[in-house]
Every structure is written in structure tokens, then in C-alpha cells.
Amino acid sequence: MASQTETVIGACPQDCPDTCSMIVSKENGKVISVRGNPDQPFTKGRLCVKVNNYQERVNSTDRILYPMRRTGPKGSGLFEQIGWNEALEEITTRWKEIAATSGPKAILPYSYLGTQGILNGLNVGDPFFNKLGATISERTFCDSGACTAYTMTIGHTAGVDPESFVHSRYIVLWASNTLTTNSHHWPFIDEARKRGAKIVVIDPYRTRTARLADLHVPIRPGTDGALALGIIHILFRDGLTDADYISQYSIGADELAERAAEYTPAMVADITGLSAELITELAHGIATSQPSVIRIGVAIERQSGGGQAVRAISCIPALVGSWRRPGGGLLQLPLWAFPVNWGAFIRPDFIGPEPRVLNQWKLGEALTDEMPLDPPIRSLMVYNANPMAMAPEQGRIAQGLAREDLFTVVSEHFLTDTARYADILLPATTQVEQEDIMFSWGHFYLSYNNRAIDPMGEAISNTELFRRLAKAMGFEDPCFSRTDEEQIAQAMLWDAPQMEGITVERLKREGFARLNLPSADEYAPHAQGNFATPSGKCEFKASMAAEGNFVLGLFRQGYDGQQSGEPIDPLPHYIAPQESRFTNPVLAARYPLNLITPKNHAFLSSSFGNLPHQRRHAGEQPVVMHPADAAKYGIAAGERVRVHNDRGTFEAIAQVTKDIRQGVVVAPAGHWASLNSGGATVHAVTSSRYADMGAAPTFSDTLVAVERC
Ligand SMILES: Nc1nc2c(c(=O)[nH]1)N[C@H]1C(S)=C(S)[C@@H](COP(=O)(O)OP(=O)(O)OC[C@H]3O[C@@H](n4cnc5c(=O)[nH]c(N)nc54)[C@H](O)[C@@H]3O)O[C@H]1N2
Ligand SMILES: Nc1nc2c(c(=O)[nH]1)N[C@H]1C(S)=C(S)[C@@H](COP(=O)(O)OP(=O)(O)OC[C@H]3O[C@@H](n4cnc5c(=O)[nH]c(N)nc54)[C@H](O)[C@@H]3O)O[C@H]1N2
Ligand code: SF4
Ligand SMILES: [Mo]
């Protein structure tokens, strides 16, 4: 009998702004291919190099398909298969014992966005760990610093509709490698160019996106705040501001002008390594080619002054009145357009009276003697994340994970660098084996993922995992036994005006639906102010700064207390990198090169870093350097080198090109330590210091030396 191919509408699960609608084909209960859904107006029937062979991820013989117990030394990767009951019994017996003897705070969850589904993603374990009384993990992996800065200036609003970029006349991609990290946005940018727009990319590296731009601004890393203030200086100096917009819809313009007066083009040129003419050209372009729009990437926040840089950039559109028209303004995180029923998924009401909060960037310190904790962390549960590959101070994390007295549970698809250290390893389903509903942080479409096949082996979804754990712990609140169907029914605030006309039935059938907002041809959210700040205006001088530094509750299991509250200057200003030859010449004498570690074209963070198709595309871990630097350190193109500083070392293959500024080296993140020559990755050399806002990381604020192996 001929086998029959059936198709199911799904959605890509990855932590990517594009959230593609995906058509899954299956035969005899097995996924045979995936393709983009041509009906989705934003993602338009194309999947990227990471996901267009997703069936190979699903069907990979390397999948973890059964619960396992470690049999060899930690990190060895030796495990034996056990049953689910045995696994759950062992985990909950250990946790009950730890809670009884050390208190539940000795247990630490660690997770992020392995999948982005509202059910299985960011908050899936929060109700469980909040109820358990475990240490609260502060997950400031991505955009937390930018969110703090944006919220202080503009508020929780979606910003410009990415589709309305077609109406822009001047598009600034500021630290965004759009063709790699947000590739479905590019056709809208390209369409604007066909209609006469100019495209500018601000990036120390001439990326594939920068190569297609009309103007590439090769800024020195970590100096974006100075550039933004230099632009603001020129806007005021040359009378390029929109006085009417400013007077109606902003506060603090005079103070901002006074602050920006300090940032003369000559001084900014000196800091940023750009010419005063280029800075002036940029300021005039943004002001006079209306509507102009700025798309900020996440890379800006990964610097000591990343928060204040985003503050300064966020002021620019209101200063020149570009919010007045569709396609003008700023795009940061359109996620806020989605009326997700977060409370039902996070359950902050379960948090006990005096919780303990621990930031995930500090994992290495928290697991070793570096950070004395009372009680110390005795158990770690990792799901939806791979800290050994994506978090700083890799050497210290490895040292912590190797502790014999640490009980580690990992839920995964594959034996990642982190999973190797698990005591108990649990099998997780992939997107085609689970049901979910998805927001997006790159467009205004809500997506639905229909389950295509039954779970493989004994894999279970994250929702099922926490149902089983809660039952085994004896948690009785009804929220712990909610089915996936019940959770989908609670996922959204279905009565919100943006949801008009959108039902679960429609989503299941069509796979996606645009939020009920004005069309991209009409959407100008701040044409008449309507900023979501305390004053309702764009706050150049931020009133929220009085309360000090904060992290959004969403990133902290819903917990709003115990914020750092460190003072924040209410006016934007420039904070220099801590590791640069200008601020730390002693360190720079030993480690003269500034390392940045952007996203890998073929991987999604570290996901796909083990799969053959994507590995072939990515090649061996590279480090990109300028010919003058290569010559100075006697390095030839293609040679194996050591990249190192006092924190550690990783190996890479030197790529020599003028596409990178002199003094800066680029090593894309996402390779696996266990698959890299030398057994380490870029995070061997990064630090866990925070940036100025939102406990964002500073891993692009790193000095290294490069030498031949
Ligand atoms: N292919 C692919 N796509 C992805 C991801 C992935 O891993 N791979 N990850 C997804 C996730 S989680 C995220 S958060 C987004 C991130 O998307 P992006 O923000 O675009 O990501 P990055 O590649 O980290 O940084 C973008 C660019 O900023 C530049 N840059 C670095 N430091 C500085 C600086 O100080 N100033 C300026 N102006 N530029 C700087 C880098 O050279 C890089 O080209 O991408 C998502 N999409
Ligand atoms: N040097 C450097 N470091 C970075 C960045 C950078 O640009 N450079 N980017 C930062 C940013 S923006 C981000 S967002 C973080 C990302 O860091 P992480 O969130 O740690 O991202 P991944 O490496 O993709 O790890 C996700 C893991 O979840 C697993 N997974 C996928 N789906 C499921 C599921 O349904 N259930 C379970 N249990 N597991 C699943 C995947 O197999 C994968 O191993 O990294 C940050 N770190
Ligand atoms: S990773 Fe991003 S671009 Fe690639 S298929 Fe998924 S949503 Fe689309
Ligand atoms: Mo991210």
C-alpha cells in the first residue's frame, strides 16, 4: 500500500524574532520534511538554514529519547537508561531531602527560550519553582537592559510595525545583523529601498547585512552611547529637531540639549573611531529623510554602558518627529503588542515571603566558592537552555557542574555540553511532537503549532514534565494539572481589543493571525504621543530613573521585589567599556584586542551546533581579524590560534579580512565546547560583570590576545 503524506501547520519554536509559520509533512507517523507556509505575509514560505531540515533534528539518532542516569564521571557523557517513574522518584526524593535539610532555596532552576512557545517556553517551570520556594532565577539573557532603557523612555509599547518599514525613507539597522538574525524582515527593508530609502548599518563588522547597506558605519564596540549623543548634539546644533513634536509629546528636551552639548562631533569621533563628517551625515539623514526608523539589535546592551546607549538612541525618533508617520520611529521588541496572560503562566502569587534571587550570569560563581551562598546551591535543574555554551566564565561553570555534591537534572533534546554533567537526564519533545501557541518578537502575528506526530521514544513536553514533577512533589493547586488544551485556552487575554476575530479554532486551522491592529500602512502608534511612560510622553529625562535600576518581572519568575535599585542618571550619557585600551591601558597592554561574539548564521544560539548540515555551513570556530592585527601578531589566514585572557582560552581558525575594524576581533558564539578543538568556546574568556541596566551581560566588553597555537 502506498504511504500517504499528510501535512500539518506548525510554527518554528526557536528564540528568533521571525517565528515562521511552518508546514510539516509526515508519512506513517514520521516527519519527512518541513517548509515555510507561503500564506504567512511576514515569513512568506521560507525557512532559514537552521530550521529548513528540522526533520533531521527530530529524527536524529543522537536524540535523547529516554530518561537516563549518569554512570561515568560528571562530564563524561556516560549514562544508563532508566524508567520515568524511577527518574521522578529519584529527583523528588532528592529535592524533598534538600528542602528539609537546607531549605528549598538550595535548589536553582536555570532555563531560557530553547522553545519560545507560551506553554513550553520562558515560564513553563515558574509556577513549580515558585511553589517549591526554590531560588528565583533572574534570566537577563537577552534584551533585559534594552527593555529597562526603552521602558524608561517610551514604555511597554510595541514600537514600529516591522512591516511598515516599507514606508521608511531612512533605515538605520543599529547593531542588528538582519540577514542572519531576523532575515524575514529584510524583504520589507529591501522594498523600502526600491521606493527610494537609504539603508544604514552601524556595526564594527562588515556583516552580510552591512555589505548590502548604502552606508556602513564601522563603530568601535561599546561606543554607541557616544554616537547617539553626538547625533543628538548635531540635531540641536543644526536646528534639525521637530520643535512642535517635542513640545507636545516629550519631557526633558532642554536638559537633554544641555547634556548633548558636551558631545561635540570631534569628541565623539575620537571615542567611536568614526569621522565627524560621517557622524554629521548620519544625524542629517535621520532628521531630514522622513519618516526615518531605527531598528536596534540586542548586541548594543552587551556593553558596560549598553542601557544608557539604548536610552540615548530611544530619544532620537521623538527629537526629529519620525513617530508622526507609519514607518517612522524605533523598533526594539514588538512582543509587547501581544496580550499574553502572563500571570496565569508565571504565578508570582506562589512566591514565598523572602525569596532569594540569583542572576543566571552568575551561575559559575554561584556553583563555586566564588560566591558564598547560604544555603549553597545543592541542586540545579536546567531546561530550555545550555549554559556551558551560552553563559560567561565557562571554566568556572564547568568547575561548578563537576561538583560531586551538586545534584543536576537536565531536560534536553541532545547531549549538550551542559547535559553531559547531568545526574539525571530527561528526554524532551521537539516542536513537531507538542502543541503550542506562539507570540513573536519580530512581527505582529500570533502563531499556532499543531502537534504533527506522537512523542518519540519516551520524550515528553515541558508542560508534561512539570505536571509530572508537581504530582510527584504533591503540589495540589489546580494549575499544576492543567492540560495543554486548558493552558491554550488561558494563554491569551482573548477579550483584549488586539484579539478581536482571533480564536483558538481559527489559529489551529490557519496557523497564524495578525493581531487586530491598524494595518502596516496606517500604524503610527506615537503619532500623537501616547507613550506608556508615567507622563505619557517620551521621557528624555526619565522619571523612572528615580527608583533606580530594575529588571522586568517577566525575566524574574514574576517577582518584582529586591531590585538592585542602583541610581540611574535620568539623562542619557556615555559609559565607556571597562575593557578597552582607552579605559584600561594596563590590561590592554597584555590583551590588546576587543572581542565581540555575535550570533552564528547557521546556529540558533547553541542549538543546531551539533547537527551535520548546520555544522558544515558554520565550519570550525573562526576568529575574524584585520590584516594589520594578523601581521602584528604573526598570524596567517587559516591558521589555528589561541584566543585568551586571564579568564581562559579557546581555539579558533583565523580569518583575515578588512571587513573588521583594526583592534577588534569577531568570534561567533554557538559552537559546542565538546566539539571544538581545545574543548572550550568563546565564553572561556568572557566575564559575568553586569552592564549598567537590567542586569544585562557585558560579554562584548572583553579584551583578549590572539596567538598562534
Ligand atoms: N542565525 C541566527 N539568528 C538568530 C540567533 C542566532 O543565534 N543565530 N539568535 C536569536 C536571538 S536569541 C537574538 S537575541 C537575536 C540577536 O540578533 P542581533 O541583535 O542581530 O544579534 P548579534 O549577532 O548578537 O549582534 C548584531 C550585530 O551587532 C554587532 N555588534 C557587536 N557589538 C556591537 C557594538 O558594540 N555596537 C554595535 N553598533 N554593533 C555591535 C555584531 O557585530 C553583530 O553583527 O538573533 C536571533 N536570531
Ligand atoms: N557569547 C555570546 N553569548 C550569548 C549570546 C551571544 O550573542 N554571544 N546571546 C545571548 C542571548 S541573546 C541568548 S537569548 C542566550 C541563549 O542561550 P540559551 O537559551 O542557553 O540558548 P540555546 O543554546 O539555544 O539553548 C537552548 C537549549 O534548549 C534545548 N531545547 C529546545 N527545545 C526544548 C524543549 O522543548 N524542552 C527542553 N527541555 N529543552 C529544549 C535545546 O536543545 C538547547 O540545547 O545566549 C546568550 N549568550
Ligand atoms: S529560526 Fe527564525 S528564521 Fe529560521 S525558521 Fe525559525 S523563525 Fe524562521
Ligand atoms: Mo536572545
Shape: globular
The overall pLDDT average reads 97
Strand percentage lies at 15-25%
Strand neighbour order, sheet with most strands: 5-4-17-16-15-6
Secondary-structure-based class equals alpha/beta
Span between N and C termini? 59 Å
- Work out the helix count: 23
Number of strands: 27
The profile of the biggest β sheet is: 6 strands, mixed
Q: Which stretches are poorly predicted, pLDDT < 50 over at least 5 residues? A: none
Q: Quickly name the level 1 CATH class of the largest domain.
A: Alpha Beta
CATH topology tier name of the largest domain: Rossmann fold
- Overall number of domains: 4
Which hetero compounds are present in the coordinates? ligand MGD, iron/sulfur cluster, molybdenum atom
| Helix proportion | 25-40%
Any overview of this molecule?
This is Molybdopterin oxidoreductase family protein. Residues 5-62 form the 4Fe-4S Mo/W bis-MGD-type domain. InterPro entries: Asp_de-COase-like_dom_sf, MoPterin_dinucl-bd_dom, Mopterin_OxRdtase, Mopterin_OxRdtase_4Fe-4S_dom, Mopterin_OxRdtase_prok_CS, Prok_Mopterin_Oxidored, YoaE_C. Its cofactor is Mo-bis(molybdopterin guanine dinucleotide). With 709 residues, the chain is of the alpha/beta class. The protein folds into four domains: 5-59, 2-Layer Sandwich (Phosphorylase Kinase, domain 1); 68-135 and 356-514, Rossmann fold (3-Layer(aba) Sandwich); 144-335 and 523-556, Dimethylsulfoxide Reductase, domain 2 (3-Layer(aba) Sandwich), CATH 3.40.228.10; 585-708, Barwin-like endoglucanases, CATH 2.40.40. It is 27% helix and 17% strand. It has 23 helices and 27 strands. The strands form seven sheets. A six-stranded mixed β-sheet has the order 5-4-17-16-15-6, covered by helices on one side. The longest helix has 18 residues, at 84-101. It is globular. The model has no long low-confidence stretch (mean pLDDT 97). Bound molecules: ligand MGD (2 copies), iron/sulfur cluster and molybdenum atom. Residues 15, 141-142, 298 line the site of molybdenum atom (MO).
